[in-house]
Predict the structure.
Amino acid sequence: MFSAGGAFGVFFGSMGLLFAAFGIGMLVWTARRTATYDETLREGLVAQARCLETFTVHHTSSNGPVRSQRRLILGFYTFDGREIRAQAASRQPYVRGDIVPVRYLAHSPQRAIPADSPPGTGAASCLVGGVLVISTCMGLLFAVLGFGLALFSDIPADVREPGPRPGQYESAEPQP
C-alpha cells in the first residue's frame, strides 16, 4: 500500500509518462508528414490542375500579428482517369481558372501539392521538432522523479536512518 508521498509519486510519474508519450507521438506524426511531403515533391506524379476556388485563412493571435495563408481548391485527373479535388496551400497568387502544376502520390492523390512548393523542411518544422524533443525529455524526467519518489517514500524509517531502533538502547557493555 502506498503512503501519501508514494501515491503522489505514482501520479506525478504517470503524468510524466503521459506527457512523454504525447511528445513521442507528435514527433512520429510530424516526421511522417514531413517525409510524405518530401516524397511527394521528389517522386510524385505530375498533373495539370485547374484552380477551382481560392480563399484566405487568417490565423490570429492575442498579442501578435495576424498571419494569412492562401488556400486553393484544385481539380485534376489522375493518370488512371479519376477526378480529384484537393485543397492546398500556395504562396503564388493563383486565381480561379488558372492552371496549376501539382505533384501527387498515386496512393493518395487527394494530398496533392503545387509543384512550386518549397522543398525540404522549414525553420518552423525544425523549431517544432526541437520543442517536442525537449517536452518529451521533460516528461521522462518527471516520470523518473515521480516513480523514484513513490519507490523511496515507502521505505520504513528504521531502514532509512542508521542508528538504534525505537525502544532499543545501546549499552557500553559488549553483548555475548
